[in-house]
Amino acid sequence: MKFKGKICSIALASAFLVFVFLILSSAAASAVQVTKIGTGYDPAVYGDRVIWTNGVVIHLYNLTDRTDTTFSSSGASSPDIYGNKLVWHDESSGTPRLAVYDIPTAKKSYITQDVDQYSKPAIYGERIVWSANESVYLRNISTSTQEKIGNGSNPDIYDTKVVYYSYSEDPEVDITIRMYDINTKERITVNSYGDPNIPHIWCTNVIWSDVYNHQGYIAMYNTSTKKTIDVTHPLDTDPDGNEYGASTGTHIAIQNDKIVYNKCVDDYEGKPGVYVYNISTGQSTLVYDYPEEVYTTPEVYNNTVVWGMDKNYVDSTAGNDIYLCDLAA
Fold first, then answer.
1. 3-class secondary-structure state, position 311
2. How far is CA 329 from the centre of its chain?
3. Could you list the mean pLDDT of each consecutive 10-residue stretch along the chain, which spans 329 residues?
4. Which domains does the chain have, with CATH numbers?
5. Contacts of 149 by beta carbon, 8 Å cutoff, 6+ apart
6. Of 44, 143, 149, 245, which residue has the fewest beta carbons closer than 10 angstroms?
7. Nearby residues of 125 by Cβ (< 8 Å), 6 or more positions away
C-alpha cells in the first residue's frame, strides 16, 4: 500500500465515511413508478414526446394522452427529437443517410452528403450535427446549408455550441473534447486528459465519459467557472482492496440540472441500474435496478427519464423494451 501508519488509518476511515455516504445518497432505489411504454431501442425525449425505433417502425409516444403513433421507416436507428422535428439514421435505401421529419406536416426529407454508417444525428432548433469519416458536420435545416466544423466524432449541440470527441485538431493533444462556437467559429479545448468520449452539452455544462479505465466514469466541465468535477467515481479500491467505480460511462445524457446514466456492475459504488444525478446537490439516485451486465440507454427531459435495452448487448430473446419514469410523480 502507498500509505502507512496514521496516514493509512486516516485513509481507511475516510473510505468508510465515503462508503456510508454512498449508501445513504445513491445506493437505494427511489420510489418512482416505472412504466413500460413500448418495445424497441434508442429512445429520445423532448417535452411531452418520446421517440424510439425498432428498426422498421418509428414510434412517437405522447406523454400527455399516452398515445403511440407509428410510421414506417425501415433501416432506422439513433433517433433524436427537438420541438416538432425528428431526425434519425436511415438505411432503408441501402445507403446511409439522415432522415428529417416534420411532425405537423408529416413531411420527410433526407441528408445524403457526408453521411456514413456510423452517423448519429443530434438536433437543437433548426440545426443538426453528426459525424462521418472522422469529421463533424453541421447543417441548418431552414437554409439547407451544411459545413464541416471539425475533425472527430460523437457530436452534441446546445443552442450555438457544439461539443465533440476530437483526436487530430490539436498537435499537442492526441485525444480531447472540443467545443465549437457556431457564431464566432472558435474552437476551444474542454478536456485533454484521460480518454474522454461521448460528450454532451446543456447550457454551460459539458459532460463526457472517460473510458481510460474499464467502462468509464463521468466528468463535467462548467464553461462559466472553468472547473471540472467527477460526477461518478474513477477506478479506485475499497478498504478490502477490491476495485470499484469507472463503470458508469456507457450511456449518458444531460438536461437542465440532471444527468442520467447507466451502471452495469454491482460493486462498492452501487447496484446496476439507471441513475439520476442532481447537479445542484451532487447526489445520485438509483431509479431502476436490474441484474449485472444489462446495458440501458437513459435519456432525460425535465422530470421524465426514458431508457431502452441496448441492442448491442442484449440478446434478442430478452426483448428490447422501452421504459419511462416520472420523477415528479
1. coil
2. 23
3. 32 36 41 89 96 93 96 92 97 95 96 97 98 97 96 97 87 83 96 91 97 92 96 91 91 97 91 96 94 91 92 54 93
4. 30-326 (2.130.10.10)
5. 129, 136, 137, 138, 162, 180, 182
6. 143
7. 82, 83, 159
